[in-house]
Design brief:
This protein is an alpha/beta fold. About 60% of the residues lie in helices and about 15% in strands.
Length: about 350
């Protein structure tokens, strides 16, 4: 940034200096043609060169940076609406300029410029105020095109991009889920998420470093799989340091959901109206639903907390507590479900060995 400002300062020094030389020479000739114009031209050159060196960043770099920062905070929907409104306003202004050009001087030269400003402003203001209606029009058009494409070629087209959180990459399940096709669209990993992943992989703490390196391996696996569309995007949100806050703001601007398993990020994003795809919620949703009285096979692997209990696990990780199952540790048995309990940690199934009453009598 400092280098760019310095370049523009020297550019301003040169441009204003050249303009000062011609301005001084011209002004001196107008005031008194008999005067020697060179000293005055040099003096004007020095003065305007200093002014250009100081003022150039304030009329070029700083306004552009401010405008870029301001636009980065606006949603993509608002920017598109403003652009549509501006184009429509300029078209209307151009149509009005045709009869205005027939007016006498100076109205035929001033009023077209005024019409451009007025109709351009009105177009932007009205389009932003009615951006919801504009979005509906685009959605209807897109749905019609997608329906035509599906009926014509039979090919499904991804609808939108999905922003990926660091925690999902480290978790690793995203690779398997993406291969199944249940995560449609383009998986976008912003550069700041990749930087955080690299920072974790270079951590001095052993466990943290291992998690970071596993995340890098999962990311490499996603990029190599041709069936998964993955993009590392050089996009950022200026003025924000926290990665989670950047991700939420970027999701709002892009109108894209966030794929995560971070509980805190999940809550913050939902509070700000951002759609969240939580892998943990997906895992709980696809667990098998069992009713009391149903039977299932399970391997008892350890003792439970209560006397005589055994504990086993289903393939999806659901804990199965087996009453009087301690004697079956290390064995595969059939159990009958007695109760299903949903807790904050997940689902627990309480059961008893199938035919346990017969077993006791024997």
């Amino acid at each position: 940034m400092k280098t760019i400002v310095l370049i523009f300062r020297f550019l301003g020094l040169i441009l204003f200096g050249v303009a000062g030389f011609y301005f001084g020479d011209l002004l001196t000739g107008i005031i008194d043609p008999n005067l020697n114009t060179l000293p005055y031209a040099i003096g004007a050159t020095v003065i305007l060169a200093v002014v250009g060196f100081i003022a150039m960043p304030y009329i070029t770099v700083y306004p552009i940076n401010w405008l870029r920062s301001y636009l980065s905070k606006l949603s993509g929907q608002m920017l598109i609406s403003a652009l549509v409104g501006l184009v429509i306003g300029l078209i209307i202004a151009a149509l009005f300029s045709i009869p205005i050009a027939l007016l006498p001087t100076p109205f035929n030269s001033i009023l077209p410029f005024v019409a451009v400003l007025v109709f351009g402003y009105l177009g932007v203001a009205i389009a932003i105020g009615r951006q919801g209606d504009i979005r509906e029009v685009f959605n209807l058009t897109r749905k019609g095109q997608r329906s035509a494409a599906q009926s014509g070629s039979g090919k499904w087209q991804p609808e939108k991009s999905i922003l990926i959180d660091t925690s999902v990459i480290i978790d690793g399940r995203i690779a398997d889920i993406a291969r199944t096709g249940f995560v449609p669209g383009n998986l976008i990993i912003p550069r700041f998420v990749l930087n955080e992943l690299q920072y974790i992989a270079d951590s001095a703490e052993s466990l943290r470093r291992q998690r970071g390196r596993r995340g890098m391996e999962v990311l490499s696996e996603l990029q190599k799989d041709r069936t998964i569309t993955t993009t590392i995007a050089d996009i950022d949100v200026e003025g924000v340091r926290e990665v989670d806050e950047k991700l939420v703001m970027l999701a709002r601007q892009m109108q894209a959901p966030i794929l995560t398993n971070d509980f805190n990020l999940n809550r913050v994003a939902e509070l700000q109206g951002v759609k969240v795809l939580n892998i943990n919620e997906l895992a709980n949703a696809v667990k098998s639903i069992l009713l009391p009285g149903e039977t299932l096979p399970v391997k008892v692997i350890q003792e439970g907390k209560e006397i005589g209990q055994g504990v086993g696990y289903l393939d999806d990780g659901t804990m199965v507590v087996v009453e009087d199952g301690r004697e079956f540790i290390g064995k595969d048995i059939e159990v009958s479900v007695t109760k299903v309990l949903q807790t904050a940690a997940g689902r627990m199934i309480f059961s008893k060995p199938e035919g346990s009453s017969n077993h006791k009598n024997n």
